[in-house]
Specification:
Layout: H1 3-7, E1 11-15, H2 19-28, E2 34-39, E3 52-55, H3 61-68, E4 73-76, H4 83-91, E5 95-97, H5 100-107, H6 109-118, E6 126-129, H7 132-137, E7 144-148, E8 158-161, E9 175-179, E10 183-193, E11 199-201, E12 205-209, E13 216-221, H8 227-244, E14 248-257, E15 262-268, H9 278-281, H10 286-294, E16 308-314, E17 321-322, E18 324-326, H11 328-332, E19 337-341, E20 346-347, E21 352-359, H12 363-376, E22 378-380
Parallel strand pairs: 1-2, 1-4, 2-3, 4-5
Antiparallel strand pairs: 6-9, 7-8, 7-9, 10-11, 10-12, 10-14, 12-13, 13-16, 14-15, 16-21, 17-20, 18-22, 19-21
Helix pairs in contact: 2-10, 3-4, 4-5, 5-6
Bound molecules: adenosine-5'-diphosphate and magnesium ion.
Magnesium ion binds next to loops.
């Protein structure tokens, strides 16, 4: 690289234009970088914040290749992208965060489980089923969770199989059947890793799910864990991330089971819902951190300023269409509550429309306020 090229302001592309891209763009505004977004929906949350918007399908080879070929680096905000195009771009010298090889492993839930097994990373026992017939034959393995290899999103593509009667609800395509874990806690840890292999760990967060929608609902930081469990969690998350041998940022989702054992559930090789609270509650947010990794700056400080809780703002039942936010002013009056609405024009039941992060020294205060927010701030039509 010549001195002139070094001085040039880097042009970075994001595949996908949802809320994660939007928050990445908000953080990019602080750095010498121009950001390009590829996304099919010209009204997506990222479209109006980037320097250059390209309408196109992130799953299409030509769309991704043509978008990336003149850029310095690319990152993703969703795994469901054309990996072949990224591999070609990587060969031609475009940096990809995370590396396409990591995406290949993670995109497919079967390969992802095999990765954990091959690297001695604790994860629930599993078998692979090619079709429904093979699932029927695996009845001895239940209670279990059936997960489609590719194409699942936000809880669709995951089916609980408790009894033999549930077997018909499984997937008739290559899938993984995992033993049902007796979950004590669901946690996630964000880990950043740069080109030099230096790492930065955020404190793990603890999650609560909406049992009906299977979407992340509330999330407490830091997770309440014994020191011993915390050490296990950190060691496992680091092993998962280091073995990928790729710079980037990763969200490692784990279960603490009723014996206190820690099992990896799945990993996202990108900024993630479980890091949203880092925008206000930590010195360096996950979005800021990813730019530091991509632009090869020093890693940031992951320490918390205060404990926090994050509430997802989900489209209200029975409301589909142009959105209006009920209760916004009431929430904006609350101390230390930070509202993020993602700029989606249309709401529908269960759609992630925004999130609110609350900061406080007191857990009771966090729980009380987040419950109030959940009941007050409602996306309706
Ligand atoms: N082996 C398992 N045992 C118990 N619960 C599980 C298991 N696998 C997944 N779950 C539950 O299902 C949820 C969704 O599964 P996950 O694999 O994270 O899929 P996704 O996040 O892609 O929808 C998890 O957050 C967890 O609550
Ligand atoms: Mg998950």
């Amino acid at each position: 690289m010549t001195a002139d090229q070094k001085k040039k302001i880097p042009a970075i592309g994001i595949l996908g234009g949802g809320q994660l891209g939007r928050m990445l763009l908000q953080a990019a505004a602080n750095y010498p970088v121009t950001v390009h977004v590829l996304e099919n929906d010209a009204d997506c949350p990222s479209a109006h914040l980037c320097h250059h918007f390209t309408k196109g399908d992130i799953r299409d080879f030509d769309a991704v290749y043509n978008f990336g070929k003149n850029l310095d680096a690319l990152t993703i905000e969703i795994e469901n992208v054309n990996v072949e195009a990224l591999e070609k771009l990587e060969k031609e010298g475009v940096k990809i965060f995370p590396k396409p090889a990591v995406l290949r492993t993670i995109k497919n839930k079967i390969r992802q489980k095999e990765y954990y097994r091959d690297h001695q990373i604790p994860t629930s026992a599993f078998i692979i089923t090619e079709n429904l017939r093979e699932l029927e034959e695996a009845a001895g393995f239940i209670p279990a969770v059936h997960k489609i290899g590719e194409g699942g999103y936000d809880g669709k593509g995951v089916q609980l199989i408790r009894t033999r009667e549930d077997l018909v609800k499984g997937f008739d395509s290559p899938s993984v059947l995992e033993k049902l874990v007796p979950i004590q806690k669901e946690i996630a840890q964000m880990v950043a890793i740069n080109e030099k292999g230096e790492t930065a760990l955020y404190p793990p967060v603890e999650m609560l799910f909406d049992p009906e929608l299977n979407l992340l609902d509330y999330q407490l930081c830091p997770a309440e864990l014994s020191t011993q469990t915390l050490y296990k969690v950190e060691a496992i998350a680091l092993t998962v991330v280091r073995n990928f041998k790729s710079p980037g940022i990763f969200a490692v989702e784990m279960f603490v089971d009723t014996n206190g054992d820690v099992l990896v559930n799945e990993t996202a090789p990108r900024v993630h819902n479980s890091g949203h609270h880092t925008i206000e509650a930590h010195y360096c947010s996950q979005f800021d951190m990813l730019w530091r990794v991509i632009l090869d700056y020093p890693l940031g400080n992951t320490d918390a300023l205060l404990p926090s809780i994050m509430v997802n703002i989900i489209g209200s039942d029975g409301h589909s269409g142009d959105v209006r936010y009920e209760g916004l002013e009431e929430v904006l009056k609350m101390d230390n509550a930070f509202v993020h609405l993602y700029g989606k024009m249309q709401t529908k039941p269960g759609r992630k429309m925004g999130h609110v992060t609350v900061l406080s020294h007191e857990k009771q205060d966090l729980l009380h306020k987040s419950n109030r927010i959940k009941r007050t701030l409602l996306p309706k039509t």
